[in-house]
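Methods — Computational structure assignment.
A single polypeptide chain was analysed. Its primary sequence is given first, followed by the predicted tertiary structure written as structure tokens.
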Amino acid sequence: MSLTDKLATTRLNLQAELLAFLRRQHWSTYALIDILIFALIIRLVAVTTVPVNVTADEADNLQVIYHILAGTGPGWFGLDWHQSPAFSLRTQAWFVDWFGEGVGGLRLYPAVLGTLTLIPFYILARERLSILSSLLSTVLLATGLWFFHFSRTGYTNINAAFFAAGAAACLSLALRTDRWYYYVGVGVFAALGVYGYDAGRPVGLAVAAFFPFALYLHQRKMLRVTIGFILAGAIAVVIFLPQARTVFNDWDYFNTRFKAVSIFSVETPYMGDTDRGSIILHQVERNFKGFVLLDRSLQPISYQADRLLPRGGSFLDFWTGLLYWVGLVAGLRRWRETALWWCFLVVPIFVNEVFTTQTPEGARSIVSTPFMYLFVGLGIETAVSLLRRASGEIWLGVGALAAFIAITSISGAFQWMEDPFAAHGRFLALGLLVLVFLLRGRAAVVHGAVIALVLFIAFANVWWYFDWMHEPYASEARGPAVELREFDQWRACQRMEAEAGRFGFNVNQWHASRPNCPQP
């Protein structure tokens, strides 16, 4: 056989093996891939022009990145302008270096990480939920306005959500399979949580909080579980050791940000309270209302409210919020299955929100977003189960609720939960409920109705995001900022400062000198 024939045979064999591999994959794998592609596309559409300007935080990130690319920035174990480990900006610098030094390269980093977060999220969902509920909740997370927004801005916050979801997914797989390398993954992601954005620091605490639950739920293999957690902790410590030296050598600087927002150092009276006990108690109450009850009335006290959420909005839209509440109730009943979710939802929110000022707010809590949507997925599963096997009493209750929603929607009594598409979404959902009732007993009808509602929610959230970004108040809230029309000149000035080894300048200094470069 000639060399050409051998190569041709090898090529045909490889093609046959590839086709066989693809045929072996479940349809849900291809559905997940489609969701990932869709999620990345909507994050890249108009990313260089929407959001419509470059905030001071984005500009400061780029300033440090330009220094990194010029060889004058912090090292891998140094600290950045935010008093955080430079790891986040060092990795973001790869994207700026590879895909351009403009806005697109900066925002590609959160776009990619926001998309990748969907993978461990889906793994976590499939550990407890059906394929349909897992896929639909992944779609809702991919398009949820709060998470979507942070996936399109040049902030590094989104890596906290990725690391938390990765740690939880590895932990769930480790407990189910007893594979040691999953515990190694837990340790890696927990350590990266400390290396990343500040909100990721409680990831290790969430893992530790789940340890007693793991022992209780896996009593027959308590020794193996204990060894696994010890291994994960040891891996996390070893990975963090190089950074720990910098942290402890400059402890005050490392904690500058935390001290600035800490509830323990805030001047009193704070929100009408003078003693720390009352302050913390009311912080718990406010954050319970914000992250559990989704109370929109608390948005004005949130840090940079109009920059992080649409005016009058909440962390979840109307219908996703209802599914979330259903999931929370079901999660309490199924606490043995959802204990891991609860730990990763409650611990980071408690540390990042209760112990800091101007909360509930969206930037520090982004780490818990995937776990809120896990309960949304459980809400979908619970709703589908109830609708498929609904008795007359359940349909009577659903009908009464539907009538109440319809009447109060028409009268405007639901203004406290209003958002730009809530009214349309309510009537769509009511119509789907009528269809399901008329054709009850047919599983395909229930599944089709739920899919239609989720697709509507996804489309409406993406539409709402772009509409919000073009609101004048949103652009103003992002100030002080570098306008896109002057970005090239700003970049040239920052690059010159970075290559000269000088510190550079902030946005206010730029405003004072533009279009000329600020003088060193």
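Note: The longest strand covers residues 53-55.
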